[in-house]
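Exercise 7. Predict the joint structure of the components listed below.
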Amino acid sequence: MSSIGNHLISAGQLSEKEIRSLFAAAKAFSGPASRGETVPLLQGKTVVNLFFEASTRTRSSFEVATRKLGGGLMAFATSSSSVAKGETLIDTAKNIVAMGPHCLVVRHSSAGSPEFLTRNVSIPVINAGDGFHEHPTQGLLDAYTIEEKLGSVSGKRVVIVGDIAHSRVARSNILVLRKLGARVAVCGPPTLLPPHPQALGVDFSYRLETLLPDADVVMALRIQLERQNRMQVPSVAEYSQYWGINRERAQLLKKGAIILHPGPVNRGVELDPEVADGPNSVILDQVFNGVLIRMAVLASVCNPEGLKAWLQTARS
Amino acid sequence: MAANGAILIIGGRVIDPSQKIDREMDVLLDGGKIVALDKPGAIPTSKAERTIDAKGQWVLPGLIDVHVHLREPGLEYKETIESGTKAAVAGGFTSVACMANTQPVNDNPYVTAYIREKARSSAACRVFPIGAVSKGLKGEELAEIGGMVREGAVAISDDGMPVMNSYLMRKAMDYAKAFNVPIISHAEDWNLVGQGVVNESALSNELGLRGNPAAAEEIMVAREIALCRLTRSRVHIAHISTAVALEHLRRAKHDGLPVTAEASPHHLMLNEESVRGYDTNFKMAPPLRSQEDVEALRKAVAEGLVDLIATDHAPHGTVDKAVEFDQAANGIIGLQTAVPLTYELVASGAISPARWVEALTAGPARLIGVPYGTLLVGRDADVTVFDPRAKWTFMGSDILSKSQNSPFIGHPLHGKVMATIVGGRWAYGAS
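Solution:
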């Protein structure tokens, strides 16, 4: 077991070996997790979910992962905090850390906030999504799901379609998938692709049809439907017409290709219902694997020695 | 008989581009004026009450910074006229021009007069107010430019708040001609900047920070030049930072338009890579650019395409800076580090000593139309003594500004200001 260090801020910080270790731990947790058994690696420890931005599944996933490891939880959301009263991020974090927790799981709308916190608090920080920057556990769980379904990530063509420019999910996925040897392509309206896609080391196209026949994996990203984005995409209908995965487009896929979506899905926009619920969709596997990956990350950050020992016992 | 308070500076290398002087000379200051400039040993020491041996050092006209934020009135927790000018003289500056984004905004004669009077009672160096272009910096109606000039304003600018309305900017340029003051433009297209906080590039994408493209600056520089062509009014581009904007400037100057520009020490010395790590002390507007832009800017200063160096000294408290990157205020303090930082370019041979001194003296003096930035006999005795051999490290404890927002704390520096004399009075240096 190679330890990932004190903090998980960026998928880019992980070596291939570290990613493999996290996958091995996630796999070992899948048995106990599906049987409802606790793996007591966080017993006596408290994990804080420090969420400055709305989240349902990531927060719940970290909560479930913490419970399955026997850890205590403290949840902190902006609606019920002093943030609304104008407290700074540093003050909020320091006050929470003064209560003696062992790990901060942070979601924030400003890129770099988790890294900023590592310089100001003394306990491990896990990035649960920062602005457009990264969402490393999502990148890990998606790659883990691909490996589980297709046997390997290496050499596979992964097409990510949607708002790539403003997506932390895309960024973390690209970093993990490339490290594991995938051939990644991004696709979407030019207004939603990053200014320099080639710098990400990925192929890109504006036309989904050109990429689908070669794809082993298609990952559709959520399109934000807020009004201000109308300067980027004229209408939801036009988006789905060109970049949505409907039944017709799904038929361009190879047999055995899989479809991922980090959720929540806008049905009829990114994915047609028949596709979201169809045989190629692995969306619900992503959700379960998310718990396993977060267990692996939490245990690796909070109790690396205990995790190492447990894995040895589990193997024998 | 030594004259009362007379100072004789001997043995130094005098560099005064306003008179094309660059050689060893002695300088005599008396009664607040420069009274003699002569070959070494020619002025008897008996003429002075005090003699300074400047062997190995550079004796320069007092430096001028036309772009500082002194924050007074209204934002005294960041800086005051007193603290900001203390930092100025420690950095070698004998004159500063302060921007209008105070609270209340310097958009009327009363605020201009307040700044002038506050400076008279508390400043360590000369302070020249810059008035607003528009009332409240809102870009809607002209501010009282005539009244502000009457009370001492030397230029007009909505710095920090680009004037987006081209019609208003055109009228401001026309109107300013009656009072012979330049318009200083913070040239960024606000709509294109959007929520951008760093230079738009592969790096901004990697860091997940919203990009502010070079085009936002280039569009505005091109607009100001187009309006200058239309009005023939004096226009000065603040903190120009992109290679393409410099080409717009080159064409305008080639066509004989009255356009000038300044470069900030941070745009000359840092590139966008500095923002890795999300340290808000590297967040500015315009943002730190690519290394190619930095190289182009250095060349432009060296050849005189960019007329002058100005700090954009922008003090901010920790409440403004110790926050999330995209919520942090723009800008850094710069008065105490500008000279040694940019001297690095002289030491490396990128910029000649005379050109560097001109960019800090005669260049800014011409812009704001003041009789300083020269060692001409008979002028007020503003002098800066600089030791190019000194090596030191800038420490937080060196900061005289009320704010600590510098990315250069702990940074090794080359060259040090040894003494700053304002109007014949000793303003900074070991006495």
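Discussion. Chain B has two domains: 7-59+379-429, 61-368.
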